[in-house]
Amino acid sequence: MLVQMTTILTSVQLIATAGAALLWLWSAIIYIPDLMQTRLSGPESVTEIMRKQSRMNAIAALFASVAAATQATLAILGQK
After folding, report:
1. Which domain holds residue 46?
2. How many domains are contained in the chain?
3. Residue 42, phi-psi category: left (phi > 0), alpha (psi -120 to 50), beta (remainder)
4. Positive or negative CA dihedral for 7, 10, 14, 15?
5. Residues whose CB is less than 8 angstroms from the CB of residue 23 and which lie 6 or more positions away in sequence, other chains included
6. pTM of the prediction?
7. pLDDT tens, residue by residue, 10-49
8. H/E stretch holding 25
9. Count of CB atoms within 10 A of residue 79's CB?
């Protein structure tokens, strides 16, 4: 039972870590145009691009917190 639980938690941790890394990489390569050369409102505006980047960072942080929680759980289970 403990072996199955640690295997599941390790899998969750790997998926969450990979998800966080990919989302942060994706948000880092989003091109933000020069403020003087673009609109300030609308679907392709600087503010919308920055909102998209912010949402991606928030989701990546959620994935990272799941990975940290599973790592802590694995450490606690390993002490028993």
Report:
1. 42-80
2. 1
3. left
4. positive
5. 56, 57, 59, 60, 63
6. 0.78
7. 999 999 999 999 999 999 898 887 777 777 778 788 888 8
8. helix 2-28
9. 5
